[in-house]
Each structure stands twice: as C-alpha cells, then as structure tokens.
Amino acid sequence: MEAAAAGVNHSPTGGGRTLVVVPQPARSRSRAARSSRKRRRKVNARDNDLSDLQWAAIKAAWGEACAYCGETERALQRDTMLPISRGGRYTLENVVPACGSCNASKGNDEVTGWLRRTRRSEREFLERYAELLPGLRSQFAGEPDEADDSDANTAPPEVPPA
Q1: What share of the chain is helix, strand, coil (3-state, %, to 5)?
Q2: Dist CA 111 CA 114 (whole Å)
Q3: How far apart are CA 43 and CA 45, in angstroms?
C-alpha cells in the first residue's frame, strides 16, 4: 500500500511497475493570490497617478500603435518601461502603449534589455520616446504628477551611440 501512496502502482499482470505522474498546476491558487496582493500593495504604495486623460494622450502621441512593434490592430495595454516589480510606477514618463503580445513577452524585464534580447531597434524606440516625452510633459504641466516627481524616471533614457 505504501507504493500506491507514493505514486507507484504494481501491474496486475505481474512484475512490472508503472509510475503514475499526476500533473500539478503551474502555480497554486494561494501563491497566485499572495502574488496578486503583493503587486496591489506595491501599486498602492507608490505614486501611480496616470489619469485616463494622460493615457489617451500617450496613445495618441504613439499614433494609437504599440510603442515596440508598431501594431495598430490589437488592443493597447499600459506597459511600464520600468516594471512595478522593479520600482516603476504608472506615470506619464514610465508608461507606453503596448500590444498584448509585446507586453506579455516583455514581462517584468527592463525595456532596453528586452529590446536587445528580442532584437528590436533600441535606438529607434528611445529616440521616439525622447521625441514624444517633452510634448506630453508640457501638455500636462502643473498636474501633481509633474510637480513632485523629482526622484525617478524624469529624464529620458540616453540614446546609445549608433
């Protein structure tokens, strides 16, 4: 009986043993719930003040297209260039529109590392970002997001040499 409890069944035809493999879920529900609560605490603990108006302006500035691949047919998602799990925030400077495919692929990677890994043009993305950000900032100048944001993600990333 101990063999059956351990996942080994004896064959009724005699002699041979069959290993019974029971598939396990990739992630337990309690672990997923803990992870979700942890993320929610991180988001709520920081200044995540991207308004719907700012999100609409970001999408319009990027031409209603994915910032990474240029896809226009898919629904756009808010993607944080510096992920929440690495200290990023949902702010005007840190959010770009991304299609679901790019957003899922990027996961919690930092944007420049992900662009290099997927062989996308890092330079093209950063130049476009640096071109659009000042216009977005001026459009929303004077809002709380801009007034007290002196610590992180205020300067556009440096564009690597050609």
Answers
A1: 45, 10, 45
A2: 5
A3: 6
Enter the DSSP assignment of 85: G
The DSSP output letter for 75 is: P
pLDDT of residue 130: 95
Phi, psi angle pair for 132, to nearest 5°: -85, -30
103-129: average pLDDT:
93
Tell me, yes or no, if the pTM score tops 0.90: no
For residue 67, what are the CA distances in angstroms to 16, 17, 58, 99, 142? 58, 55, 10, 8, 26
Nearest to 136 by CA among 57, 49, 78: 57
The stretch 31-44 carries a mean pLDDT of 70
Residue with tokens 């944001």: 149
Distance CA 80, CA 96 (A): 7
Please, which residues bridge with residue 95 across strands?
80
**Element at 106 (helix H, strand E):** helix 100-106
Question: Tokens representing 153?
Answer: 């993600």
């005007």: which residue's tokens? 92
Number of residues in the chain: 162
